[in-house]
Specification:
Rossmann fold, globular, two-stranded antiparallel ribbon, 14% strand, seven-stranded mixed beta sheet, 2 domains, alpha/beta, 426 residues
Length: 426
């Protein structure tokens, strides 16, 4: 591919201009505070916010590519200097989400969109870019998640007392909200008696919130966690030893390529998978692969986040696909009914929805925890990402939490939310 030198020069000029503008905006704000001009900084904040807001709007001007690219360059530099105000990030997240998901327009333009999407999944591998997902989330220093996640290190939606729980209470109530969701899983899997002797596989076990909680609360059950991360395996086994849990086992591998050991086939009473299917593509082949793990009439519980109407793939198509590039490359956003098209090996017994505001609150809690521990986070990021990149990654992780919170909170939590499914092996 030939690269036009003139384009390179324009890009460099744009980036230099954006850096000058950032310096100017920041110096106006800083100088005004220092000189005591309007102690509330109302004027300078207005200038600062308005300027950034105009740049965000410029990003949407598709027909004027040079203007759009200039806006993107400025926003990128402001953001990666960790200077982009949260209020602007939240506006930007809502703006970009609404622009990306134009449901009514998409439906009127292509009545076969969903059928085409489902048929497309059936032609794909089980998963794509699994190494990217593993690197983006699951190999990050465990100490970061110790600081940010809740007591049970549940890296998925919690369940708050109400979807209208005040945001300022999100962090304080997180541990209880984690437990509430874990109890809901057990209930929906029909596990309530502590004397129950089930063998359960936790597929995509993360840092073991489900594995360890089930092992503690149902001591007669044997829990096998399946993870794509050796870091997570080490952590979970360390926690199991610390808690004197003898009923925990961890298997590592890539779900897309692994051939399960014969000793595991037909040995499980229950399968549970929490927010792993969003990293998958061909659900037909995936379900065919995991179905043999279950005993006859065994049950599988799945928790995934979904879109109310239309599914989509997470693909980097432009510089504005920030979330996909850094946090969810190769991922899938299923619609609420996507899994219902894949019932060759399982039959649906029941399904439920959890309002998206519960996930929004969970993400706000993680953000609050990160901000409270920001000095320690900075030290960890200096080690993990390098001193030159630490601030940049602080900004990226904060924006990840903010953008996802706004995503799940959209339309009162009724557009993007969590769905629970209970399937029985055919």
């Amino acid at each position: 591919m030939m690269v036009d030198n003139e384009d390179i020069q324009k890009s460099i000029i744009n980036r230099n201009r954006s850096r000058h503008l950032i310096t100017l905006l920041y110096s106006i704000k800083k100088t005004s505070k220092k000189q005591g001009i309007m102690k509330t900084s109302c004027l300078t904040n207005t200038i600062y916010y308005f300027s950034v807001l105009m740049l965000l709007l410029a990003i949407s001007i598709q027909q004027f590519q040079p203007v759009q690219q200039f806006g993107i360059d400025i926003i990128t530099n402001i953001h990666e200097a960790n200077l982009l105000p949260d209020i602007i990030q939240r506006f930007g997240a809502r703006f970009m989400t609404r622009r990306t998901f134009k449901y009514n327009e998409a439906f009127s333009e292509n009545l076969n969109y969903k059928d085409d999407f489902i048929n497309g999944l059936k032609k794909m591998p089980i998963a794509v870019k699994t190494e990217n997902a593993n690197e983006q989330h699951y190999t990050v220093d465990t100490r970061f998640f110790d600081l940010v996640l809740g007591k049970h290190k549940k890296y998925s939606s919690a369940l708050y007392p109400s979807k209208d729980t005040p945001v300022e209470d999100a962090s304080r109530l997180l541990a209880d909200a984690e437990i509430a969701m874990l109890k809901l899983y057990a209930s929906r899997l029909n596990i309530s008696d502590t004397k129950t002797r089930y063998k359960i596989m936790d597929i995509g076990c993360g840092w073991g919130s489900i594995t360890l909680w089930f092992a503690e609360n149902f001591p007669n059950c044997h829990i096998v966690g399946f993870s794509n991360s050796k870091t997570q395996r080490k952590y979970i086994l360390g926690q199991a030893k610390k808690r004197n849990l003898k009923n925990v086992e961890i298997v590592t591998g890539n779900i897309a390529t692994i051939k399960f050991d014969e000793s595991l086939i037909g040995s499980f009473d229950r399968l549970i998978s929490i927010e792993m299917f969003e990293h998958m593509k061909n659900y037909e082949v995936l379900l065919e692969k995991i179905s043999p793990l279950l005993k006859p009439n065994g049950l599988m519980f799945i928790h995934i986040f979904v879109s109310r109407v239309f599914p989509r793939h997470y693909v980097v198509e432009s510089d504005t696909d920030w979330m996909t590039k850094y946090f969810f490359e190769g991922g899938t956003l299923p619609s609420e009914d996507t899994l219902l098209y894949f019932q060759n090996d399982f039959a649906l017994k029941n399904k439920w929805n959890v309002n998206g505001k519960h996930y929004s609150l969970t993400l706000e809690a993680w953000l609050q925890n990160m901000d409270r521990e920001i000095v320690t986070v900075r030290k960890l990021f200096n080690e993990y990402y390098g001193e030159d990149n630490a601030v940049k990654w602080i900004a990226r992780w904060r924006t990840f939490f903010i953008a996802c919170s706004e995503f799940f909170g959209l339309d009162g939590g009724g557009t993007f939310y969590v769905s629970h499914y209970l399937f029985e092996k055919r």
